[in-house]
Design a protein that fits this description.
The protein is an alpha/beta fold. The protein contains six helices and six strands; from the N terminus they run αβαβαβααβαββ.
Amino acid sequence: MIRDDERHATVQLTLLRHGEPQGGALYRGRRDDPLSPAGWEQLRGATAEPTPWRGIVTSPLQRCAAFAHWLGGTRDIPVHVEARLQELDFGAWEGRTADAILAEDREALLAFWDDPVRHPPPQGETMTDFAARIDAAHAEWHERMTAGSWLWVIHGGVIRVLLTRLLGMPLPHLLRIDVPYACRSTVSIGDGPPRLLSHGALLR
């Protein structure tokens, strides 16, 4: 049973984006491509520094889950799969490059980049619905995570939503946060306002 002092003490939550998937840079939401060899190396490099993670939470998509299970098995860390942490469903843009979309539907993509809340991908998930399921997952895991360090292996869009929520940023501004492959960000969550300790770097 988790004690109250464990449940409400500070959590250092590291958000790790998956590495490069096979097929390169595409609008890839529900599409379940595996990591490329380069993607595996990116993630191994991002987690090379020993960190006493209490647990790993991962998206079920294999570009996240395969590495999460490998890391958990290697370091004897429990791994939890959370379906609500999947990437945004990009609808008609799934599996296409930005250049291909710009060539055929330039105005729609530029509008999405400017304000993804008001201009979701055609036939895709709205940003409001996407953020709602991320909020629900985070609220539940906030109660489940005990004090200490935790690792979430997730997607760029999920990380952007979480950072906007935790840091009090407007949701329409989430694309202003750059989250490259294997980007690692750490937020301290305790009794006061959450604090961003690092973004795109190892834990200090």
